[in-house]
Amino acid sequence: MEILIRANEACQPDPFLLWDSVWNEAAAVADWALAGNAPLNSGGLSASAALRTAVVLCLFSDQAMPKNHPLASYVRDGDPRGWWGDGVDVRTDLGEGPLGSLLWVLWNMPLNLAAQWAAPLAEQALAPLQTQGAVVEIDCSAEITSLNGLALSVNLFGEKGALVYSGKFNLVWQQVVAAAA
User: Fold this and answer.
1) How many domains is the chain built from?
2) Is 159 domain-assigned?
3) How many CB atoms lie within 10 A of CB 89?
4) Which of 23, 64, 102, 159 is least enclosed, having the fewest CB within 10 Å?
5) Residues 6+ apart with CB under 8 A from 91
């Protein structure tokens, strides 16, 4: 007697379970969005922009400031910040490094100096996306805007030079400058 196992009969595909962090430009915050009436995720969180979510997490999670970094003198109150998970589960044997960026330290320095450091720090924070094969090329730029703001532009490219993500983050800088005034 032959036993036939029909594992996929009448089954829906597995839902993508990682939720999106949706950037709200007007409020300069990231938040989660509801999936609505998605057939496999009714009432759950939206999960349709994984690359955008990865960009927000890479840029706006605070990486711990290394003691020998050239910007270490701009750390206020001696708090090097960092994400607690980096002390628990960083697999250096798999090429993993700390999560996040050092963009947070730019808020403690003159705007012209912050503009010089913003793009290189963003590219460093986004490098794991390239290492993991999610993107082929990373292009970041920063410019000083009116009202003492700093605009950070991020463009990510896939195979054959196709633009797979483009985002501009500027209200974060204006909000911080306004709060400090």
Assistant:
1) 1
2) yes
3) 7
4) 159
5) none
Q: Is residue 65 part of a domain?
A: yes
CATH for 73: 3.10.450
Q: Return the number of other C-beta atoms located less than 10 Å from residue 1's C-beta.
A: 2
Other CB atoms within 10 Å distance of the CB of residue 112: 9
Per-residue pLDDT of the chain (181 residues; tens, 9 = 90+): 555 444 444 444 444 445 566 667 677 666 666 666 666 666 666 666 778 888 988 998 889 898 899 999 989 888 888 877 777 777 778 777 778 899 999 888 888 899 999 999 999 999 989 988 889 999 999 999 876 788 999 999 999 999 999 999 875 554 455 555 5
Strands (E), the chain: 22-24, 29-31, 137-145, 149-157, 163-169
- Between the alpha carbon of residue 168 and those of residues 53, 94, 109, 174, the distances in Å are 14, 31, 21, 13
Which tokens sit at 93? 């044997």
Q: Give the predicted TM-score (pTM) of the model.
A: 0.71
- 16 occurs within a structural domain: no
